[in-house]
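Feature request, filed as a ticket because there's no other form

It would be nice if the structure record came with a short human-readable summary line next to the tokens. Right now we just get the raw output. Example of a typical job, pasted below so the devs can see what we mean:
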Amino acid sequence: MAQDIARIGHSTNLVGVPTGLLASTAFNEHPLPLHISGVREANYGLFDRLREAEDAQTAAEIFQEYMYVLFGLNGEPPAGQDGTGPRRFRSSYLKLLSGWGFDSNNPQGAVLKGWVESRFGLFPTFHKEPLTRFTSPAWIAYIEEKMSSRFHNNSINLQLDLMYEFCQWAIARFGLWDRRHVTLYRGENHFDEQRQIGPREGRWLNVRLNNLVSFTANRETACEFGDFILEVQVPVVKIFFFNNLLPRHPLKGEWEYLVIGGEYRVKASYY
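Raw output as currently delivered:
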């Protein structure tokens, strides 16, 4: 595959919406419900328990307890294993979030971008450098990092599936937003990770965002990361993680949101 990575992603995904539509500004303006195929059905015990939670805090504690037990994140072996033999590093969704918080272009970031690619069908646009060709050294390095057993073990994609589904469940269950979109901000100095598509219309432009992108709900926080501020109306179905979702996580300081990318219409302003 020597062609340029011009198309937005794979022809198939696991969310039941064509990738081209999912990535479009039209989808962002008129979003459809998204669910990763089979995740809630295969983990019905978790979602049965969650229905009993009276508030978001209790639900988050149920979720994290389930993750600790199922994936051995509390030091105990996962279900069905006796714990004998050499101990192995167990990757976890929290360790990936921690790594992303330090640098979204490290191996943990590659695993997260690879998960988005495999579930939502969207190609990343940047990892350490622009990803422009499938046979480029940059693309090969991305593949090596996203598949490395250092962080790609312990059913890590299933862990991320569950976090996305729990995020969407929590938004719907507790009415965290009574609307289909939230206004988020991102500071930029250079547009290395994003690609402008089409002409600029005053402050408005269409950009192709990386397949997983950090935003913040606080404009002042966004200003700390760049002089150009991108203001985006993000459909809630594309939110993978937000600051108040879990009581214990490593991204507490910056009101951070992790958002599924694609093509967005954004308002750009200079701080």
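Something like this underneath would help us a lot:
The CA atoms of residues 185 and 220 lie 9 Å apart.
The chain is about 35% helix and 20% strand.
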